[in-house]
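Hello forum,

I keep getting stuck at the same step: I have a sequence, I want structure tokens, and every attempt I make locally crashes halfway through. Rather than fight my setup again tonight, could one of you with a working pipeline run this one for me? It's a single chain of 414 residues.
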Amino acid sequence: MRLLYSIGIVLYGLLLRILAPFHTKARLMVEGRKDWYFKMKQTVDSSQKHIWFHFASLGEFEQGRPVLEAVKNYYADHKIIVTFYSPSGYEIRKKTHLADYVFYLPYDTEKNARLFLDLVNPRFAVFTKYEYWYYFFEGLHQRSIHLFLISAIFRPEQIFFQVYGAFFRKILSYVTYFFVQNEESVCLLKELGIRNAGLAGDTRFDRVVDLPKTRKAIPEIIQFAHEKPALIAGSTWPEDEQILKELLQHYPNYKLILAPHEINDSHLASIFNLWPGALRFSKMASYSATEIAESKILVIDNIGMLSSLYGYSQMAYIGGGFGVGIHNTLEAATYGIPVLFGPNFKKFQEAKDLVQNGSAFSITNLNELKSVFERLQNRSMCQEAGQLAREYVLQKAGATPIIMKYLKTNEMKI
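Reply #2:
Ran it on my machine without issues. Output:
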């Protein structure tokens, strides 16, 4: 199985190189990893003390950010190295002030892991939620470097818990400690004989809990909405955008602020084909007051604003639920507003909790969306659902102090 895994990694790298001339994300992944060893060797001082954080993408970075900030503050004499798997993380956070060095994670081969760890030699490593790389994990273990998985979550259908998952269970054995999101994950790991795990919760709550106090003021949004009711739709895909268009035909008084998940040219073109009169946020300064007042759709054609946008709405629609799965619901819930999304949300504990407590609503078609939207026009119902959402976030915050207490208590061993 180890051989098959290695072959799979090589084939995956080859596939990315084939796709690179035609696919932006593939090109960035290939170019970002080109000559990675020489780039790192020129910048990383191996004599320094390092702590390594790895994130799959931007979402995991924001999820693990509270721990990253706390570790950077506590271990002030260490250099922080951050790696990303995906361009969605690296390209946006490559200049973050929270890290001394930011790189793409090299492909997971035995040689790459050895060279990387020779250069970095971290005091310990922190991975967030997912991301299980055999050779990097094995290399850390062989060097007796502690590896922590934060905000981890496990489900019975994952490969670790299947009869054919022995190789992947081996990867789990290299983790020093799992800080998991729920009791189910603790129990599942125990079934595998893994007891170095504890319930800490999801660090995303620590990240979002203070957003209402620290969010950026966005004058362009105030100007666009101009006291009209506004619906914020975050991380949307074409399926979401189609159903939202049909919804708003029944609510002409509403304004839609749309933040698509992908802002590549083809996706933006499809949005403007759907809404020919839509405005671009990046061109707000060029529009007349009349154009802004009369337009119903504002498209956010940049990354990084969404967590502040939700503060300008009485409710939020989260995209992805008609595809592989919904995106971040907590950034909306923390503002004390009800949350709507498509049917594919079962993999996300917080979404299930929000639905259960009555602060979020899952819909499967336009009629259900219209029904929920109409009910939320009742101000008292909307406010009550929003209050439940905010209370949920407040109750779930606190994972970061648990993780930091462990690190401090076991500092002499790490």
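The chain has a mean pLDDT of 94. If your local run keeps crashing, start a new thread with the error log.
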